Amino acid sequence: MTRDISTRILHADRLGGAEHGASLKPLHIATGYGYATAEELAAVFQGDKSGYVYGRQGNPTTAALEAKISMMEDAVGTVSFATGMAAICGAMLALLKKGDHVVASRFLFGNTASWLNTLSQLGCEVSLVDATESRHVADALRPQTRMVFVETIANPRTQVADLDAIGKLCAERGLVYVVDSTLTTPALFQPKAVGASLVVHSLSKLICGHGNALGGSVSDTGLFDWSNYANMLPAYRKGAPSGWGLLQIRKKGLRDMGGTLSSEHAHRIAAGAETLGLRVERACANTQALAQWLEAQPLVAKVHYPGLASHPQHERSLRLFKGCGSLMSFEMVPGIDPFDVLNALQLVIKSSHLGDNRTLALPAARTIFWEMGEEQRKSMGIADSLIRVSVGIEAVDDLLADFEQAFAGLRK
Ligand SMILES: *Cc1c(COP(=O)(O)O)cnc(C)c1O
After folding, report:
1. In the predicted model, what is the mean pLDDT of residues 189-217?
2. Which of 107, 278, 288, 340 is deepest in the core (most CB within 10 A)?
3. Which residues, 6 or more positions from 363, have their beta carbon under 8 angstroms from its beta carbon?
4. Ligand 1 pocket, residue 109 CB under 6 Å
């Protein structure tokens, strides 16, 4: 019998042979690694023997976290990075070259959208499409298209990409299908099930959960055939082709660019990941309750949450995910200033982070989506009055009571 994923995460370090039988992988802080002979050192450098060479390319503590993420994603391997953005940039810069074309959802985390703009200035062409329907992705494909990038549930409007149909399309066309599953996490969804080639996470969010570490990861599901990939460099065509893509990402995207995850942060993220299942279950239930409460308020014009029957991709979400996540957003009726709503909340923190144990909220258009300007905000469906809420694991009655007292003040 295969054990449940939560059980496997809890026992992974010990069963993986952690030093002295330690129940969690110790913190390895050494920068360099010594070998008894020059032959051994050269063999490790050349990838003929496993081992560590220099901390920028990883160490035993980050490797233990990578093994857990691979376990959670049923992946052949994972490369960790200092942040989610380092993971996204590292993977793209390692796998793309001048003249390539990328199709991405236009409903994206703001910094990812900003990064794709930079990528387009580096000689890659980027098409942003409405990925809630795969036909928009299909229409945008060109002979030079190499990669399709989507988020499972988009931040902040919670659009859900046409994940399985896009997966089929990418498989037919031989495209690298990159899925950012930060908002779903392995507790709710495995992108491998819809044909993802690479799965990206911001580990800073729900997987860590405690708001005390930054990290990112790229996992290879093993579904993509790297032996046919046009940009595969000869140096990394080593061993089974299923490992080639990640080897190139580790060497070009991590080693050369240097966005390495620190062991301290890897350690905290691994500790947080132990309770991912419990936290996500509670946060999803809280979000569903809050979304339903808000939807019943006369002062609220719209609530965006895939768990509501009113959400355009409600059916798809129920079919694909074990839960609808802990991020939601809402718009007040005209005449109510979103700043007044936020300022009236006492328990909820006004903060830009998400996936924290604590409930956080912010006015999306005037903070994280401000820099991109009104036109792009409009194309992403972000109204000026949009309030984004990342729901935590507080007792649901305390959370609802905070919104009740805030709304009571607004009515006066
Ligand atoms: C936060 C986030 C990122 C970036 O992660 P960082 O760890 O903050 O760099 C990428 N994608 C999504 C969906 C996110 O929410």
Report:
1. 98
2. 107
3. 338, 339, 342, 385, 386, 387
4. yes
